[in-house]
Amino acid sequence: AEDRIRCTKDMGLRNLPFHDFAANAARLQLVLMAIDRLAWTQGITLEGEARNWKPKRLRYALLHVAARFCRSGRRLHLRLQRTWRWSALLCAAFQRLRRLPPPA
Questions:
Q1: How far is the C-alpha of 91 from the C-alpha of 15, rounded, in Å?
Q2: What are the pLDDT digits (tens) for 48-90?
């Protein structure tokens, strides 16, 4: 439980910036949805030690990558930086995500 509390603080719950209770409640709901989405995505797409990375590490390693969208033959391609340390990990995560069955 303490680890999840630490993760929610890293995702934006460290301060409640509003004076209004309703605005802070809405912010709390958004942060909780973000942490749930991050944990779900991390569980189904990443493998190895990357499944247990904290949000700060995920932002540093995966979410701040230099990439470019390119179109070729009516298809959209994501070009990752080749010299980036975690490009293979992110590429494998995208491939696992594409193999999931579509929602019913």
A1: 34
A2: 899 989 888 988 888 888 889 999 989 998 898 888 889 889 9
